[in-house]
Amino acid sequence: MRIVSVVGFSESGKTRLIVRVIGELSRRGLRVAAVKRCSHGFSLDTKGKDTADFSRAGARGVAMVDPEGWAALGRARDLDASRLARRVFPDADVVLIEGGKDVRGTPKIEVLGRGSTEPASPPGELMAIVSDADVPGAAAPVFASEDIAGVADLILGQKEGDMAEIRLEVDGLEINMNAFVQSFIEKTVVGMVTALTGVDQDPRRIALVIERSGEKGRGGSKP
């Protein structure tokens, strides 16, 4: 799976680019999915509808299904869009994330709107710039907004992500972890597990569940 963020300021043309790239990749026979980051929040639970009643009653997630497809709304603190994409679209060849220029860890294609010539993405994460104007001293390849095939080729030329899927839940609440913490947990747990007799030295899935018994607070309170 290749996961790429398409970023840029409001009205720069991010959505238009994503729509056209989805069409190009789909015509090539690839399975494409999209995720939109909503920095100001969103809601699928319209007041007065059953789904709103379910959420208000305390449901941690609500899903809707009809003959045309499905949609789901879950609750999590600062869930990373890349992790969500891997979970919701496990069979996708390419996932395009709209937005998240300030989110670290995902390769970015930045769309520069009219009058903009300076990308805001970190140079180490900027894989391309889309602009119809000159971009002096560009730190990444520059594509015209009409060069959709070129952008698609660039995306497909990226190495597929191989980061392990690490999930941490505490009393049913999923805890967000950055890439460093995920990598640290993966290496620590894999190292301990593979040191055990009879364990495959290259395990594909490790599940660790800790059920703590006894009354809450036993053992003393935190300082």
Report on the architecture of this protein.
The chain has helices at 14-27, 50-57, 81-88, 148-156, 179-194; strands at residues 2-7, 32-36, 61-66, 69-74, 94-98, 108-111, 126-130, 142-143, 168-170, 173-175. With 223 residues, the chain is of the alpha/beta class. The protein has a six-stranded parallel sheet, sandwiched between helices. The protein starts with a strand and ends in a 29-residue tail after the last helix. The mean pLDDT is 81.
CATH fold name of the largest domain: Rossmann fold
Secondary-structure element sequence?
A: EHEHEEHEEEEHEEH
Number of domains: 2
Strand order of the largest sheet: 2-5-1-6-7-8
Share of helix among residues? 10-25%
Average pLDDT number = 81
Top CATH class of the largest domain: Alpha Beta
Helix-and-strand structural type: alpha/beta
Chain-wise SSE layout:
Elements: E1 2-7, H1 14-27, E2 32-36, H2 50-57, E3 61-66, E4 69-74, H3 81-88, E5 94-98, E6 108-111, E7 126-130, E8 142-143, H4 148-156, E9 168-170, E10 173-175, H5 179-194
Parallel strand pairs: 1-5, 1-6, 2-5, 6-7, 7-8
Antiparallel strand pairs: 3-4, 9-10
Helix pairs in contact: 1-4
